[in-house]
Amino acid sequence: MMAIIYALDEDGYLRTPTAELINDFQFSNRTLELALNAVQSLEPSGVGATSLTECLTLQLIQDYPNHPAQNLAIELITNQLALLADYPGCIAALADILTTEKSTIEHAYKLIQQLNPRPGYDFHSSDNHYIKPDIVILASKETANIFEAEVINQPHKLQLNKTMINLVKSNISSQKQSADNDAKEWLESNRAEADNIINALDFRQSTLQRIANLLAQLQADYFAWGLAHLKPLSLSQVAEQLTVNPSTLSRAIANKYISSPQGVEPIRQLFSAALPKQPDMTNRHAKFVLLNLIKQEPAQSPLSDEALANAMHSTGINISRRAVTKYRLALKIANSRNRKIPNL
After folding, report:
1. Residues 32, 34, 37, 38: what is their CA dihedral angle, to the nearest 10 degrees?
2. Does residue 26 share a domain with residue 117?
3. Sheet hosting strand 263-266, strand order edge to edge
4. 187 and 78 housed in the same domain
5. Is the separation of the CB atoms in 41 and 21 below 8 Å?
6. Strand pairing category for 257-260 and 135-139
7. 253, 270, 287 — which closes off a domain?
C-alpha cells in the first residue's frame, strides 16, 4: 500500500503503470489489486485513480451512492466524456444517444460539475521549494566515464548524552530497592528505543550511500552522455544487488534528489522501465522524444497520436499509437484537436 502512495503524483493519480509496480516490488496481481483498492478507499475520494474517468467514477460511487443521477453520470463519464467536453452544445446529441430527456442530461452534468478532477492537489503546496540534492555525482579525475557518488545533506549525527545517563543511574542507585528496579527497567527500555532510532537512521544513511555508489556505476553512460543513454532499471534490480527489500529501497529514495552532470532531479527518475519492443530503451527517453515532437509540430495542424507514433518510428523508437496516447496523457498534453491554434 505504501508503495502505491509513494507513486501518486501531485494530483493524487497513480500514473506509474501497474506492470512497472509489479516488477519493481515483486507484487502478485492480486496483492497489487488489494493494495490499490485500499488506497482508492481513502479520502479524498478519487485518490489513487489511474485515469480521469476512474477518478470521477470513484467519487460518484463513494460520495453520491444514492443520488438519482449517479448512474447516468457514470455512463456519461465512462462512454461520453469527449462529447461532454462540448457542453452545452452536446445536450441534444447525448439525449439522442442515451434515449433520455435533455433535462436528465443537464441534471447529471450538474452532478459531474461537483466532482474534483484533481483530488490530491489540495494537499500539494504551491510554494516555491529550493531543492538541495542529497547525492552528488562527480566525474572521476583519474578515469574517463567513471563517476563517484557522495551523499550530502545528511542529518546531524545523533548520539546519547552519556552525562545524563550516568546522572540518572546515580539517582536510581540512591533510591529504595523496589523503586530502583522499576527505574532501571524504564531507563534500559528508553535507552534501547533511542539506540534503535539511531541505528535505523544510520542504516538509512548507509543504504543511501550504497544506492548512490551503485547508481554511479549502472547509469554512468547517462551521466556522461544524457537521456538517450539512460538504462532501463527497476527498484527490484537494485534492491537485489544491495540485498535489501524493494520497499526499503523505495523509502530510502523517497523525496530525495541527485545532482549530476545532467542536472538536479529526483533519484526516482533514474529508475525507468524498458519499452516492450526495445529492452535497451527507457520509456522516459520515449516520453522526452514525444514531448519534443509535439513542441515542434505546426500550431495550426498538430500531429495526431498515429502521426506521432510514425514520427517516433523514424527516430528509432518503435511504439504503438496506444502507447503514444498513454505517454501523452502522462505528460498532461491534450489531444491534437485541443492543441490546435486557429489562424486569427
Report:
1. -110
2. yes
3. 147-151, 135-139, 257-260, 263-266
4. no
5. no
6. parallel
7. 270
Cis amide linkage into residue 44, ω under 30° from 0: yes
Q: Are strands 147-151 and 278-282 parallel, antiparallel or unpaired?
A: unpaired
| Structural domain harbouring 199 | 135-270
CB burial of residue 295 (10 Å; 0-12, 13-18, 19+): exposed
User: What size, in residues, is the chain?
Assistant: 344
Report the domain count for the chain: 3
What is the spatial distance between Cα 23 and Cα 280, in angstroms, rounded to a whole number? Answer: 16
Buried b (16+ CB within 10 A) or exposed e, 171-192: ebeeeeeeeeeebeeeeeeeee
Q: What local confidence, expressed as pLDDT, does residue 192 receive?
A: 78
- Stated pTM of the model: 0.62
Q: 317, 289 in Cβ contact below 8 A?
A: yes
Pairwise CA distance, residues 252 & 266, whole Å: 12
- Residue found under cell 442530461: 105
Q: 29 vs 22, 32, 52, 151, 326, CA distance in Å?
A: 7, 5, 22, 36, 21
Please write the tens of the pLDDT for every residue from 323-332: 999 899 888 8
- The answer to whether residue 153 sits within a structural domain is yes
Task: Please enumerate in sequence order all residues whose Cβ is within 8 A of that of 197, keeping only pairs 6 or more positions apart, or say none.
Answer: 158
Domain check: are 144 and 249 in the same one?
Answer: yes
Residue 264 and residue 286 in one domain:
no
Rounded distance, CA 97 to CA 192, Å?
Answer: 69
Alpha carbon distance 211, 275 (integer Å): 24
Identify whether residues 10 and 102 lie together within a single domain.
yes
Asked if 234 contacts 26 with a C-beta cutoff of 8 angstroms, the reply is: no
Residue 250's pLDDT is what? Answer: 87
